[in-house]
Amino acid sequence: MDGARVVVTGGAGFLGSWLCERLLGDGAAVVCVDSLVTGARTNVAPLVDHPRFTFVAADVCEGVPVDGAVDRVFHLASVASPVHYLRLPLETLRSGSLGTTHALDLAERTGARFLLASTSEVYGDPLEHPQHESYWGNVNPIGPRSVYDEAKRFAEATTAAYRRSLGTDATIARIFNTYGPRMALADGRVVPAFVQQALAGEPLTVAGDGSQTRSLCWVADTVDGLVRLGESGFPGPVNIGGDAEVTVLELARTIIDLTGSSSTIEHVPLPQDDPRVRRPDLAEAEGLLGWRPRTPLREGLIRTIEWVAAQRRPEHLPA
Ligand code: NAD
Ligand code: UDP
User: Fold this and answer.
1) For the chain, does the N or the C end have fewer beta carbons within 10 angstroms?
2) Which positions are annotated as active-site residues?
3) How many angstroms separate the CA atoms of 114 and 89, rounded?
4) Contact 217/176 with Cβ under 8 angstroms?
5) Nearest CA to 74 among 41, 28, 37?
6) Which ranges of the sequence are coiled-coil (predicted)?
């Protein structure tokens, strides 16, 4: 990666900021393009003085305003959490469609390798378990989650078509639920929601009976998978995610245990089309990239809890 110039769209978000940091550490020059619609300048604040880091404020739906040579494009810009994509349905569809086309155009124009940050949501509420990349998915095309799922499916179709018709060196990562420091505390995703509730001694809001499962992956592990796929020549798609599947209720109990909280559990309505199960088949990631998630769930949760607790201390709270 030494000397490479890498564009990271969505680089001021949770995953993007970890990716920018990792790429700088690997010796790359990083151009972070972000509209800050859901990301935050604070996520990249420690990087802005780095001589190889540039921040460009732009909406990728309008274009990706980067001049000069580019070696890699990591396209992460997307509204990404249910709370936000239910609030911003049209923006979500546009970033998956127009935004992805513009990011692909940049890669095509510069001859860069392109990586699409796709999602396990392309599998929808899966009828196959675990999910292998060959599974086509079970998505409700007009349900509330469809703006995200179908935008990513369109983004995958566009990426595959650029590769087929124009020869763009493009690949697809299907990322499963990832957690860790710098997740937006207010975007409703399950780990930050439960950790904040546990630290505040409030009930943990478990959706439905909590028997639905997710397979969580520590952020640095996910980012390592993305970098490996970006550096490989594989077209993908490749699943990148955790292999320790837990029910949401087990996750809530683990977080109560790790925080030593006296919180109880409160069952709240299950959102429409909430996937029942989710676990990646990691044979491709392991075979092609030599990648496996390394960080045990409890270890990653402890680090995340420490980070959330630090954000709640008075010096981090708004005046
Ligand atoms: P995030 O919300 O923290 O980051 C997304 C970033 O993209 C934000 O900084 C946001 O401001 C930016 N963005 C959104 N629309 C934009 C636009 N039109 N122009 C420019 N910037 C824009 O979310 P995240 O969890 O870091 O997700 C990053 C990527 O990874 C997304 O593409 C998401 O779909 C994908 N992904 C994440 C997970 C996960 O568990 N975190 C799982 C699957 C896929
Ligand atoms: N969830 C929950 N309580 C919350 C937030 C989420 O029980 O306060 C559930 C949600 O219904 C889903 C799972 O946790 O079953 C993961 O939700 P998240 O929004 O983190 O990710 P996704 O649904 O996209 O997998």
Assistant:
1) C
2) 148
3) 25
4) yes
5) 28
6) none
pLDDT of residue 244 exceeding 90, the answer is no
pLDDT band at 319 (very low <50, low <70, confident <90, very high): very low
pLDDT tens across 247-260, in order?
999 999 999 999 99
Q: Which segments of the chain does DSSP mark as H helices, in order? A: 14-25, 41-44, 82-87, 89-94, 100-110, 146-161, 190-200, 219-231, 248-259, 283-289, 297-312
What pTM, to 2 d.p., does this model score?
0.97
Give yes or no for residue 239 CB within 6 A of ligand 2: no
CATH 3.40.50.720 fits 5-177+216-241+278-294, yes or no: yes
Segments making up each domain of the chain, as ranges: 5-177+216-241+278-294
- Distance (angstroms) between ligand 1 centre and the Cα of 47 equals 18
In this predicted model, what pLDDT tens digit does every residue of 174-226 receive, in sequence order?
A: 999 999 999 999 989 999 999 999 999 999 999 999 999 999 999 999 999 99
Ligand 2, atom 19: closest residue by C-alpha: 189
